[in-house]
Design a protein that fits this description.
About 45% of the residues lie in helices and about 15% in strands. By secondary structure, it is of the alpha/beta class. Bound molecules: S-adenosylmethionine. S-adenosylmethionine (SAM) binds next to helix 13 and strand 6.
């Protein structure tokens, strides 16, 4: 009986079966049970998906490489169900509410019901197998009395699916699977583009690589991919970018461990093209962690710049160090709050500054669907306040005729052009630089101009995540 599965309690109270216990037959129920816990941790307790999915304390392949591979496959299946469910949570939970008709359900069971609905709606598995896995998962969650209820609810869903779909389609939040505040902010900011943004947000993102052009050519790397039966497509406007035909774990990527390639959306790779660090220059990477753009800046300048990477989060800064070690690149790493006077700074101004400011991250929802559930409208004012402080501080460290690039992965003008324009208006020596003139010509038609800056929108022809970029100089 699945209810008698040997389970291994973990520090986080999880029920992931030990490697020995997780036979192939039991796997779908275990995946659903673990996903249910992660989903309820995000949707009902406000934890991030990364935190909720952290493998800390789970079985880790202590029994050799076959067990490690099984544990990794299990983890990846749990992640896929969790992120898929979170992507559609606001629609699926509306269906769950109709099915439950006010009946209370423990948080993990609510997560399980929504995950089960996701699997019925979006997976290619046979519906009766999904239903019986969800029933087994309820037992694994130590809720045996809820097993019959889970069975009844999911079977009712299968019987009444068209009528339920019609009911939730009438509600814009459920139909778009976006919270009301974000939906209206997108409609107001992007009246011609919001529907494409929503569609892109709800689709699994492509996996894009950044090739270190100082170490190999994109053609050579694509040939290497082909030798591993992998397909990579180049992007005409971004020489370092290769879009993979299908996503895969980084440890299966040729050259990843050696630092020849990194995973980075092409929209993020644009930062190095816009900042154009030159050999010998002093470069500040402000808000650098986990170091995606730090690596890109060092590769773009063949490492011939003096780069200082600053971040206020020590744990995240440690990831910059890890990344640079893998890339075989060097930078000075500083843990400091950039809203405070810079005690770490020697008062010599920087030639180039990248300020990749903390933001709502609503431009990267397709990669982090939990943002739709975690972010609130009222967060935006506080974020914009901090962005203005950071931008003001960074501009004070810029050399005359130097270049500062302000970037966010937000789609909201309140965090983008309004921040940039307000700060520049208060600093008479600062001048905006036209980003349009710095853009690769093949990208120009796919961006939206907003004030002095540009916006990349998910769902546009560029195929990137959402980013805002604006440039300033000082006279
Ligand atoms: C958008 S992320 C940066 C991503 C990074 N540039 C990359 O490409 O990997 C924003 C970063 O700002 C950092 N941050 C937030 N407030 C800060 C502050 N007051 N001073 C310095 N760093 C800050 C956060 O810790 C976070 O790592």
């Amino acid at each position: 009986m699945p209810g008698n599965l040997p389970t291994q309690p973990t520090r986080s109270g999880r029920v992931l079966a030990s490697d020995r216990g997780s036979s192939t037959a039991h796997r779908p129920a275990l995946v659903l049970a673990e996903a249910a816990r992660a989903i309820s941790a995000v949707a009902l307790q406000g934890r991030s998906a990364d935190e909720a999915l952290s493998p800390r304390g789970q079985a880790r392949g202590s029994e050799g490489s076959a067990a490690a591979a099984r544990a990794a496959a299990m983890q990846s299946a749990i992640r896929a169900v969790t992120l898929g469910t979170l992507r559609w949570y606001l629609r699926l939970d509306a269906v769950a509410a109709i099915l439950l008709a006010g009946r209370p359900l423990a948080p993990a069971l609510r997560g399980l019901l929504v995950a089960g609905l996701h699997q019925l709606e979006f997976s290619r598995g046979r519906p009766e197998v999904t239903v019986s896995s969800a029933v087994d998962a309820a037992r694994l969650l130590r809720q045996p009395r809820a097993a019959a209820l889970m069975n009844a609810l999911l079977r009712r869903y299968l019987r009444e699916r068209p009528a339920l779909a019609r009911r939730v389609a009438a509600d814009p939040v459920a139909a778009s699977a976006h919270p009301a505040w974000l939906l209206s902010a997108l409609q107001e900011s992007w009246p011609d583009d919001w529907a494409g943004v929503i569609e892109a947000d709800n689709a699994p993102p492509p996996m894009t690589l950044r090739v270190d052009l100082t170490r190999l050519t994109p053609a050579a790397y694509r040939a290497e991919l082909a030798r591993h039966e992998l397909r990579g497509v180049p992007l005409p406007w971004c020489p370092s970018a290769i879009v993979l035909g299908r996503p895969l774990a980084v440890d299966q990527l040729p050259g990843f461990a050696e630092g020849c390639v990194s995973v980075q959306d092409a929209g993020a790779q644009l930062a190095a093209q816009l900042l154009q660090p030159q050999p010998g220059e002093r470069v500040l990477d402000a808000c650098a962690a986990p170091g995606g753009k730090t690596g890109a800046l060092l590769e773009a300048s063949a490492g011939r710049v003096e780069l200082t990477a600053v971040d206020s989060d020590a744990a995240r800064l440690a990831r910059v160090a890890d990344n640079l070690r893998r890339l075989r690149r060097e930078a000075r790493l500083v843990c400091a709050d950039l809203t405070q006077p810079p005690a770490w700074w020697d008062a010599r101004p920087f030639d180039r500054i990248l300020l990749d400011a903390p933001c709502s991250a609503v431009g990267v929802i397709r990669r982090h669907p939990d943002i739709k559930l975690l972010r609130r409208a009222e967060d935006i004012t506080a974020l914009a306040d901090r962005q203005r402080q950071l931008l003001t501080r960074c501009l004070s460290m810029l050399k005359p005729a130097g270049r500062l690039l302000y970037s966010t992965c937000s789609l909201l003008p309140a965090e983008n052009e309004r921040v940039f324009e307000t700060v520049l208006a208060q600093l008479p020596r600062m001048r905006p630089l036209s980003v349009s003139e710095l853009l690769p010509p093949a990208l120009a038609a796919s961006v939206r101009r907003c004030g002095y800056g540009i916006q990349l929108l998910p769902g546009s022809a560029a195929g990137t995540d959402g980013f805002y970029y604006a440039c300033a100089t000082v006279t």
